[in-house]
Amino acid sequence: MRNYKPLIFIFLFFLSSCGVKKLSYKDNNPKKIKNKSSKSVNRFFKSMTSEERTHWYVNTYSQIAINEMKKFGIPASITMAQGILESSSGNGGLALKSNNHFGIKCHTGWKGKKVYHDDDARGECFRKYKNPEKSYRDHSIFLKTRDRYSSLFKLRRNNYVGWSIGLKKAGYATDPAYADKLISLIERYELWKLDGSKKPLNFRKEKKNIKKNNSISKIKESKNLEDVYIVKKGDTLYSISKKLGISVKNLVNINNISGNSLNIGQVLKLK
After folding, report:
1. Using one digit for the tens of pLDDT, what is the confidence trace for 137-146?
2. Reported pTM
3. How many domains does the chain have?
4. Which domain covers residue 236, as residue numbers?
């Protein structure tokens, strides 16, 4: 009989004759059970809808995510949303057979236990953990120690929009909608509260700030700063041409500008 340790937590969920009560992540008083058979595990998950299972998952693991945030600086909302998405709220194959809640592959240098699972290709190597807590800790270390995620740790701790977009950009997942899915989960289940926030972020404003900051970063990295101009509030093509001594026609042609509209933060090439 298999020992399904990822399910060491379970709630007394038969709180009404109607079945499972929908839980808020604030209700985090799980009751431990051990050595559950695969049949018991399946019955447990089948007794709930997908929505209820997600509430159960957040109730069960949110405190671990908060603890990881305090130690490593990764927003708890991000950790929870990734856990929900990657493990199918604890019901995914990797989570059940290897306690891998974040879809982390073996990668070079992994010396722990392994399990093989079909993902982008058949029979890929994934990490196997003793329990879910080990998976959460390895997820934190994985992000913290890899250079491609280093820029994320410069963001505000509650900036789940920036983290979501950054994780996708850094290549955490191949799904083109990965960032949108994380943000959707965070806002649907109010996971932003786990970060200590009092309200969700303004998605459009944060996305605009990210785009603007990325543009400025690219300019700062350029060796030829005199060859570009960043549009400021009140700028027009005419005022820029007078300021920099370049004709409006050349500005339009070099930058393929259609019409006369400019956006604050827009990068204009001068040569």
Report:
1. 999 999 999 9
2. 0.66
3. 2
4. 222-269
